[in-house]
Amino acid sequence: MAVSPGSAAGGPEEAPVRRGLWVYAVVVITAALIVVPVADHRLPVLPNLIIVFFVLMAAADLLTAHLLVQQFLAGGRLATLALSSTYLYSSMMMAPYAVAFIRMRRSGASSTSAEIYAPWLFYALALGFPMLVAAQQRVVPVLPARLSGQDRTRRRANAAVAAAAVLALVVAVTILVVGAAQWLPPLYQGDTLTAAGEWAGWTAVLVTAVSLLAVSRDLPRRPPVERWVVVAISASLATAILHLAAPHRYTLGWYAARVGLLISAGVVLLALLAETASLYRQLSAAHQGLAAAHQDLDRAHRELSRRAERLTVANLELEAASNWKSDIIATLTHEINQPLAVILACSEELTHEWDTTTDYERRAAVQALGNRVTQLLDMAAHLLVLCRVEPGQIHTHPVALPVQQALTRVTDNLTKQARKRVSASYGPPGAAVWADPVHTHEVLTNFVTNAVKYSPGGIHMSASLDDMGNEVLFAVSDEGNGVPPDFVAHLFDRFTQAEQSGGARTGAGFGLYLSKLLAEANQGQVWYEDVVPHGSRFVLRLPRAQRSPQAADSLDSVDGAATA
To answer: Looking at residue 401, what is its pLDDT?
Structure first.
């Protein structure tokens, strides 16, 4: 319901004035002119009509003042506050005029109330309204601009100050009329207008007409709720005209002037209510639009939040991948130096000292070269598998794999020297696991090659059923020094490896971590157990096949295939 404050006066941009407003103003004055020829026609005294006039006129002006002050509180336009104060003056001034009129009725037409108090207070009421409206057009624009930009609390304080000033003005005018009664000329003698009354009437016509012209010129710059004041001023002009045309009380013109004032006040009040309702509808539509925009903004915010979450997840995945790559590069850079150094040393020894070395020393150097090359090949194979399975997308192709076939395949792929150290027991006849043959071979081969590297004694592979008979346990046992107790918890972590005797390390810590991933992908599990009195046992648990399998003719074709 706010209006644009603009300047201190709150002058908005010019806008065309509604035709209906001018129609009401012209109709009021035209009606008065039509009544002029018969304005002096005598009518009976109608006290109830006069009381209704007092009450309704005061109520209409008071409600109009209230609507305008609400506009001021919402928009901060000082001109609206000034106009509200003018209507408040008209409503308050009705009280002393009503008191004087009632006293006139009781004391007679020749009393001071009839000749001075009532007519002078009525002229203060009828002339005061247009004069105050015209005056505020000159006063308000020179007020400081900061007054229109105050908050609602300050506006309430300003409205209270304005109401107090209006009350003081009404009291001052009443005291002035009552106190100066002996010096004021009587405007009525009995029920007839005096010469002073006629002069007062012509003055009222002139002042009201000038005020109407001044307000009409400024009307396009006023907001719609303020423009209807021209109708009220037109009613004041019509009242002044009828008072001149009907020099007696209780005539047609006398009653018509008051009825005209009342009807005009009602029209202005209804117009303000309509304008206020229109502003509320606009505000409601704006609020609905704002609510819709807020919903759109909320949906956009939720969508942005979802995208931000997805972006955060993607960033975390990229960061993990970057860390993963950095770990691989750093680990390989470190771990590859040791076998390359051995290869370089053996190569230089064979190249520069071939004639001075014995056959045994030559064979040892060549064997060392082969071991280190094998170590590098193992590291490369493990790295290739890890790069494929790390994202968590290990594709398995499970089949019913006979236990004996799985263990035999491992021993067949060992070197001749390693095969002499490995023994195997195949468990219950016909036992089979439901797993990917390539993955199973990779895990068991890793267990056995580790035992061959780190254990000087014999190595035993075995298979057995668990207590429920639903799973097969593959075990690879050796007679080495075992794993340090404080390292067991990290044995299957990525890039970890226990120190060997003398501080030596071989490999990059890929194998057991890869074995864990492959076992879990096949619904299995790997773990480590100590062997008493010394040694290690690595266990692979896989689900048992539900029915006896046929020999898998295709196993040889997948031997050595890369993990999918």
So the answer is: 92
